[in-house]
Amino acid sequence: MSVIRGYFLSKEADIDLEEIFDYTQSHFNIDQAVSYLSDFDDLFNQLVQNPELGKSRSEIKEGLRSIAKNSHIVFYRIDNYRIRIVRILHGRRDIPRFFESH
């Protein structure tokens, strides 16, 4: 396997993080929202160091992997030299529905 050199967010994952931030800020506070997003950044960097840390989710889409972070599930792919964060969804969501058109 190639050496992974970083990660990037899909447009959908970027929107997911914005919504998570907004929700956390409105229901808790700004410090909690910043801390929660920082935790995601730490997780993404862990995936760069160990891309196969998450489990295979080929039952949803071929090549898709996931890892839980608190009440959210991070879905990602290993793309050549980078980790592509596909979605960040709350664990209570209808997960397969979000991947029907992807």
Summarize the structure.
The protein contains two helices and five strands; from the N terminus they run βααββββ. With 102 residues, it is α+β, with helices and mostly antiparallel strands. α1 (11-27) packs antiparallel against α2 (30-49).
Q: What do these coordinates show?
A:
The protein has 102 residues and is of the alpha+beta class. It is built from two helices and five strands. The chain has helices at 11-27, 30-49; strands at residues 6-9, 55-56, 65-69, 72-79, 82-90. The protein has a five-stranded mixed beta sheet with strand order 1-5-4-3-2. Helix 1 packs antiparallel against helix 2. It is globular.
Report mean pLDDT, rounded to a whole number.
91
- Structural class of the secondary elements? alpha+beta
Number of alpha- plus pi-helical segments:
2
What proportion of the residues form beta strands (DSSP E)?
25-35%
Strands, count: 5
Largest sheet, spatial ordering of strands: 1-5-4-3-2
Shape: globular
Low-confidence stretches: none
> What does the main sheet amount to?
5 strands, mixed
| End-to-end separation | 24 Å
Global Rg: 13 Å
Order of helices and strands: EHHEEEE
Helical amount: 25-40%
